Amino acid sequence: MExxxxxxxAGQHVLAVxxxxxxxxxxxxxxxxSEMLGRIDYSRRVRGWDAGTVVEVFGQGLVLGDECPVTVPxxxxxxxxxxxxxxxxxxxxxxxxxxxxxxxxRRLDAESRSVPVDQRCTLVLITGREHLPHFAGGDNRExxxxxxxxxxxxxxxxxxxxxxxxxxxxxxxxxxxxQETIIELARWNFDLAVTLAASWSGDPxxxxxxxxxxxxxxxxxxxxxxxxxxxxxESLLQAWDDSLAECWHDRVCTAPxxxxxxxxxxxxxxxxxxxxxxxxxxxxxxxxQVEAATRAALGSARFEKALSEYTRAQEHREEPxxxxxxxxxxxxxxxxxxxxxxxxxxxxxxxWRARNEMAxxxxxxxxxxxxxxxxxxxx
Length: 379
Hints:
By secondary structure, this protein is of the alpha/beta class. The chain is built from 18 helices and 7 strands. It has helices spanning 2-9, 20-23, 26-39, 54-59, 72-77, 95-99, 101-112, 156-163, 172-186, 190-199, 237-241, 261-264, 267-298, 300-310, 314-317, 326-336, 342-359, 366-375, and strands spanning 13-17, 43-46, 85-89, 122-127, 145-149, 245-248, 251-254. The strands form 2 sheets. The protein has a 5-stranded parallel beta sheet with strand order 2-3-4-1-5. A two-stranded antiparallel ribbon has the order 6-7. Helix 9 runs antiparallel to helix 13, helix 13 (267-298) crosses helix 14 (300-310) and helix 13 (267-298) packs across helix 16 (326-336). The model has no long low-confidence stretch (mean pLDDT 86).
């Protein structure tokens, strides 16, 4: 949205190109139009009721009746259009008018070059890629018409904010794990993220029921796609339309939940990625608490002596900031603490097991997650 507002402020007409799965959703497009109107000063939505041409659609946004401009030059030079921004969702137009949009855009680009920016209106059209204009000689370099693609626009934080209210659970860490796992599986697909939050139990075997229709193109993994951060490559346009390919945090990739994708890249890998973002720092935080509690229980001298007995990495322990990893720490805890430290020993063992599973790229099951959190409740 910031890009479009900036292009409008610079005096360019803007063609906002949406993938088919977004463009065909009236709720999403109406929200987008509303946000544009709120972000862009002196903007107005036009719908083209009873308009006979695309020019009249925008002319009605300036003036009604016989004074409505009927040619592109008249539209651009109309006195009511100075500094006005007219926003049009192309799907609002009748089919014959939609078919004429590419020709209108070519004429708009050419005629706008001779009219000062502060003396004409600026147009924003929201559409699918089928309405992109093709310039003579194959030249697609727009001068007064900017094309803004819905590509590399969604981040994991956007999806997290969208899905947060739909993720339940009493324990904060379990909510965070579920939320991050859903984001890893749905990525840029907001609707799928909400569906998973509402209906998915967390069992990987159930993910097949949430698969997106269609197959990603086989050449997605070929070199070169990873640098396409401004618009989808030609070979990926259909996959982009179907929400099967996107630029996700500057990396072109397939949707994790697509027919055939779960077999090629297993569900466990995506579950692990989602869990790792939350659990690895959480485990380290609680490992530090176990270390502090064990040092307090044994005393620093006995604790250091125990570490020396169970590790050969004496030189590493002398480095500033050395922290024993959970495997070594668990050996000390189990060997040197008594029954009165049952809770601490239970927490240490649970952390070691969880960290070991994560180190081998294995996602934890729901019961394992709950057991881990319960074991560390008292820390």
